[in-house]
Design brief:
- With 409 residues, the protein is of the alpha/beta class.
- It has three domains: 7-148, Globin-like; 157-248, Translation factors (Elongation Factor Tu (Ef-tu), domain 3, Beta Barrel); 265-398, Nucleotide-binding domain of ferredoxin-NADP reductase (FNR) module (Rossmann fold, 3-Layer(aba) Sandwich).
- Helices cover 41% and strands 17% of the residues.
- The strands form two sheets. The protein has a six-stranded antiparallel β-sheet. A six-stranded parallel β-sheet has the order 10-9-8-7-11-12, with helices on both faces.
- Helix 1 (7-15) packs across helix 8 and helix 7 packs antiparallel against helix 8 (118-148).
- The relative contact order is 0.11.
Length: 409
């Protein structure tokens, strides 16, 4: 258990809030520049988020929030689980934390100059290790839990591509089975796998992809959107074939369906954000056929809408099992339908999903909401739902991007 922070440390860290608000991104950029001088440490990171500036910006926001709330850690600690899960995926170990401490304190000194007194640096050192110790402890517990489950593993494991399925013009699914022939740990519906790529085209790159199939002990499926500027997604779509080997760490993530759902569920997704939802629907079909579920998905049109037939088939399966006592309702919106797209055939409704539609057509006041999609989609609906009175603890969401990126207002 991390030792409590001293009153002097809290006061000194809070005193740096104005400087962090003005220079935070500059500090985190300098921190990463220091870290990446070590090739071993550099290899731990997702460099796509570095090249766009998303990760330094997100981390700067997280550091500022930590400083602002260091005397009210109840605001900060809920983020710990999400960060710890990401660290499991990227195989971040306790031995890596001192490198970050040295880089962060050095960056603060570089950017703030004489304003970063010895007392300020000592306070930030204490504050860093307070949070780091919490993360290290949590990550150790997650790894220990994974190792006790049949099919569990730590670090990187080889998986053979057993199937490659073109789902739409932009989304392809890959079914993966362990090269060693052993079982896999059943994931929690909504979790992701983290992949490490060693091919020259994407050497050293790491990516998270949501698992798009229900939990089982034999295989995983991921469904990947091809991004024109995404090196890893282009590599998977264009180069990886059946029989090829990919490396992955165990399933991770704090976005998943409750083991025993206590209330109706609304699954709300946009674009490729439907992938973790399909995992949830498959699980519900097998384990909770009596549960009332509304799966609401938004896509541009039929050309980019993946897995629709699969989801609707599951809907029928659930209804057959549940009869009149529950089932899944699937509603698809097309915001830019093609000439051949027809309401009632390819999709259900023209236009965008709206809060008013959700209020009128889902168990709005009683449901747990699970959201995944582009960041503007998440910001609109996370803030819209909570603003409309849905308790924050019933609004769950997954971010396709840096862990520390803020969504809720």
């Amino acid at each position: 258990m991390a030792a409590a922070l001293s009153a002097d440390t809290i006061a000194r860290v809070k005193a740096t809030v104005p400087a962090l608000a003005e220079h935070g991104v500059e500090i985190t950029q300098a921190m990463y520049a220091r870290l990446f001088q070590d090739d071993h440490i550099k290899a731990l990171f997702n460099h796509a988020n570095q090249s766009t500036g998303a990760q330094p910006k997100a981390l700067a926001g997280a550091v500022l929030a930590y400083a602002q709330n260091i005397d009210n850690l109840g605001v900060v600690l809920p983020v710990v689980e999400r960060i710890a899960q990401k660290h499991i995926g990227y195989n971040i170990l306790a031995e890596h934390y001192p490198f970050v401490a040295t880089a962060l304190l050095g960056a603060i000194k570089d950017v703030l100059g004489d304003a970063a007194t010895d007392e300020i640096l000592a306070a930030w050192g204490e504050a860093y290790w307070f949070l780091a110790d919490i993360l290290i402890d949590r990550e150790a517990k997650i790894r220990a839990q994974i190792e006790t489950v049949d099919g569990g593993w730590t670090g990187w494991r080889d998986f053979v591509v057993a199937e490659k399925i073109r789902e739409s013009a932009v989304i392809t699914s890959f079914v993966l089975r362990p090269k060693d022939g052993g079982p896999v740990i059943p994931h929690k519906p909504g979790q992701y796998l983290t992949f490490r790529f060693d091919s020259p085209e994407v050497a050293g790159e790491k990516r998270n992809y949501s698992i798009s199939a229900g939990p089982n002990d034999r295989s995983y499926r991921i469904s990947v959107k091809r991004e024109d500027l995404g090196a890893a997604s282009r590599y998977l779509h264009d180069q990886i074939q059946v029989g090829d080997v990919l490396q992955a760490t165990p399933p991770a993530g704090d976005f998943f369906l409750a083991d025993q759902p206590a209330r109706p569920v609304v699954l709300l997704s946009g674009g490729v954000g439907l992938t973790p939802m399909v995992s949830m629907v498959e699980h519900i079909a097998k384990q909770h056929p009596e549960l009332e579920v509304h799966f609401v998905h938004g896509a541009l049109n039929s050309d980019v809408h993946a897995l629709d037939g699969h989801v609707r088939a599951l809907d029928g399966h659930v209804r057959a099992l549940a009869k009149d006592h529950g089932g899944v309702t699937v509603t698809t919106f097309y915001s830019d339908p093609l000439q051949g797209d027809r309401v009632g055939e390819s999709h259900d409704i023209d236009g965008l999903i709206t809060l008013d539609w959700l209020k009128a057509n889902t168990p709005f006041a009683d449901a747990d909401f699970y959201l995944c999609g582009p960041k503007p989609f998440l910001r609109a609906f996370v803030n819209g739902l909570t603003g409309a009175g849905v308790p924050a603890d019933r609004v769950h969401y997954e971010i396709f991007g840096p862990t520390d990126e803020a969504i809720a207002a």
